[in-house]
Ubiquinone biosynthesis O-methyltransferase (Duganella rivi), 231 residues
Amino acid sequence: MNADPLELQKFSELAHRWWDPTSEFRPLHEINPLRLEWINARAPLAGKNVIDIGCGGGILSESMARKGATVTGIDLGEKALKVADLHSLESGVQVRYKLIAAEEMAAQEAGQYDVVTCMEMLEHVPDPSAIVRACAALVKPGGHVFFSTLNRNPKAYLFAVIGAEYILRMLPKGTHDYDKFITPSELSQFIRSAGLEVQGFKGMGYNPLTKIYSLNDDTSVNYLVAARRPL
Ligand code: SAH
């Protein structure tokens, strides 16, 4: 199985706080409107069939459903999915959540999705290229696939590990393992080998003084990539 039990455990221990915007998940709450609008601008979500890989407690999944998409969220974290289900009941925003590996889902529902999202997850799995292949299998011809992850270079180590975990203490120590960070060129390679076309990159920046996140063209730390399956 392409999953690291220690990674799953880390998220499991925090899962009950997933929807608390002041918790360890605060960064995900704060970046969500930015990534949602970026996705929606490239692939208008209303009426689309969407799958969110590594959905966790469902921050992105629910927001895409609110835009009018039919959303499936999958993850291997049992507690996060329970939290996701409860939140969906409370909010009245319907999402189909499933405890299943991306590769298994790709075998069951190949080519059924207009949009596939896989955010902040690749840097937590043993073999990210296999997840990219699963995403490529799930999307319809002509459909969109969106990833986000962390770049691997000294600046990313300084900002994403030392800065976020040790200085600003935005994330628990040990949240991110530098060795698993993925450079844009590595991710491009995975995407192309999976038969998808890279459409564009976007950087995500954080200003610690204003505490504001923004999208920009600096992909040196956090970044997103849009890909498409050829028709
Ligand atoms: N994508 C969500 C959550 C990111 S947190 C968001 O951006 O808001 C990372 C998530 O990846 C956690 O929910 C964790 O359980 C999940 N994860 C880690 N390894 C996984 C794997 N091998 N398969 C599926 N999900 C995994």
Q: What stands out?
A: The radius of gyration is 16 Å. The chain has one domain: 5-229. Helices lie at 5-14, 26-42, 59-66, 78-91, 102-108, 128-138, 154-167, 184-193. Residues 2-3, 7-8, 11, 28, 54-56, 59-60, 75-77, 80, 101, 119-121, 124-125 surround S-adenosyl-L-homocysteine (CB under 6 Å).
